[in-house]
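I have been asked to look over a protein record a colleague put together. Alongside the sequence sits a line of tokens, each denoting a local backbone shape. I have pasted the whole thing underneath without changing anything:
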Amino acid sequence: MAVTPARRGNPATDIALIAAFAALIAACALLPAFPIAAGVPFTLQTFAVVLTGAVLGAKRGFLAVLLYLAVGLIGIPVFAGASAGPGPFVGATGGYLISFPFAAATAGFIASRLPRKNIAASAGVLLLATLAGVIVNHLGGIIGLWLLAGMSLYEATFVDVVFLPMDAVKALLAAVVATAVHRAFPNLLPRRRAAKPAAEAAPEHA
């Protein structure tokens, strides 16, 4: 049976959620990074981006991250390192930043398919969603390093993979948090409804 996204939700609530998660991303971006093994910095920005998609769904997740980027673009220092303006978008790591809305949308699209009555299966779907969001982010980052930093694709990929294991950990943490959120608020994601069969939807002819 075909399914279509159910249109539901309060616009005021949607706006509040979008603004709240944009603020969450900004807060996570501004938290100081701390080094892990081999001096690789650990930040929570990617965690917040994929969590936003996994909790809000594709459309609201995309809009929340887009709002965050817009706030930084107009000069409010909400990007990593308290940076702002157009500079971060055209710098070496601009591809990661530009890919954020698409990473959230990817996570949200997969998360909206989660089974509502099976918590274990839901957790698995949410982990798949956040991992997919991380992959989209890294693909964007590789393309950005290639186009904006003058690296070859091989060099860009080599630089990027150093950060992939820790971002996979962030995806796992985001999936755990998203699972807890959806347990507490099972109607937060837009529900899908069964579409009417074609035979029922088509008008009868005399």
Q: What stands out?
A: Residues 29 and 130 are 18 Å apart (CA to CA). The mean pLDDT is 86. The chain is about 65% helix and 5% strand. The radius of gyration is 19 Å.
